Design the sequence.
């Protein structure tokens, strides 16, 4: 089995002692962990000062939350397989079919909106299961497997829609999925928060989450420790597929039309957010809050640049460059983690090794009983 992504982490050592090492040593310990959140806050302050009439407004906040909620859900969906060292490209391809299907089941087949939503979620889970089977049982690299199934999903979306928009009367209950507000903010932002809290609790505070990280770090060690590797990886893909389908439902509720040309543009920023998440909070290890920070810094940066009059190509350019930088930082963090582990192992070996006898000392003789 091949690992597409390593899930090791360069985390602050709780035994690390900064005493006598100076302030710079302490800052150097914190920058890899909290540097990206600090940069996000810095960008918000910078754009607020430079664009006081448009950036620090409730309208802009609502716009960012509404536009980026779907990307945030997809980034969280992509984060789950990444915990096991895999990648799921269907988070971007699948949403094309899921949002079309959520509308066509109601407008063409007359299904009530709760039934349509349930069917879309089940389809997402089934395709996630298919991805898991291809990766774990057929032993196909996750990048290749999900690229293949994602392309099939996109083709099915083209066939199902006939290359045309899918439109029709939609019930208020379905439109309210993305159209409602809570506490003055789009309800979709609270979907993201709820999903993030649940994933954080599961990944950081349950045996299942620890098993996923062990698999991503060292699959052989996971098997030796009795972790059901196949079931865990397949379950991660099922969860990712289900969340991707939910993102499709939210997108359909927001757009109120289905079209095959919409959806693929979410793939890159979702992956960028997940990869950026592996460079912060717990550098070198994908994590829920890091993924959200990655999405936020993308949203803030693009919004500020566009308000400065950035051209139409700024967003994909920004996303692509950020992806390259985030992968580079993640790789560096993984290498540092490996060096740190080797150093600690060497220190332990030196600590437990028997001291060499002084020169000229007689060798110890075994006592006879």
Sequence:
């Amino acid at each position: 089995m091949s690992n597409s992504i390593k899930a090791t982490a360069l985390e602050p050592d709780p035994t690390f002692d900064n005493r006598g090492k100076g302030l710079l040593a302490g800052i150097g310990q914190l920058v890899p962990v909290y540097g990206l959140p600090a940069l996000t806050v810095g960008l918000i302050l910078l754009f607020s000062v430079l664009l006081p009439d448009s950036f620090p407004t409730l309208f802009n906040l609502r716009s960012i939350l509404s536009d980026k909620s779907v990307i945030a859900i997809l980034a969280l969906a992509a984060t789950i397989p990444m915990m096991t060292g895999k990648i799921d490209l269907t988070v971007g391809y699948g949403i094309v079919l899921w949002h079309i299907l959520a509308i066509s089941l109601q407008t063409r087949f007359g299904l009530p909106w709760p039934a349509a939503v349930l069917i879309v979620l089940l389809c997402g889970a089934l395709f996630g299961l298919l991805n898991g089977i291809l990766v774990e049982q057929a032993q196909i690299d996750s990048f290749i497997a999900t690229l293949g199934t994602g392309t099939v999903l996109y083709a099915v979306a083209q066939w199902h829609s006939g290359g045309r928009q899918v439109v029709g009367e939609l019930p208020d209950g379905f439109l309210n999925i993305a159209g409602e507000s809570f506490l003055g903010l789009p309800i979709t932002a609270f979907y993201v928060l709820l999903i993030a809290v649940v994933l954080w609790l599961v990944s950081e505070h349950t045996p299942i989450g620890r098993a996923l990280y062990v698999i991503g770090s060292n699959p052989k060690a996971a098997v030796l420790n009795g972790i059901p590797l196949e079931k865990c990886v397949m379950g991660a893909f099922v969860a990712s597929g289900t969340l991707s389908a939910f993102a499709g439902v939210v997108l359909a509720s927001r757009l109120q039309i289905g079209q095959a040309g919409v959806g693929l543009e979410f793939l890159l920023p979702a992956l960028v957010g997940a990869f950026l998440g592996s460079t912060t909070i717990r550098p070198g290890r994908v994590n829920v809050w890091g993924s959200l920070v990655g999405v936020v810094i993308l949203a803030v940066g693009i919004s500020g640049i566009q308000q400065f009059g950035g051209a139409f190509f700024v967003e994909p350019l920004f996303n692509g460059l950020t992806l390259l930088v985030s992968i580079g930082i993640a790789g560096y963090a993984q290498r540092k983690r490996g060096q740190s582990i080797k150093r600690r192992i060497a220190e332990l070996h030196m600590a437990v090794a028997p001291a060499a006898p002084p020169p000229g000392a007689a060798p110890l003789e075994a006592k006879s009983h």
Notes: The CA atoms of residues 192 and 276 lie 17 Å apart. The longest strand covers residues 181-182.
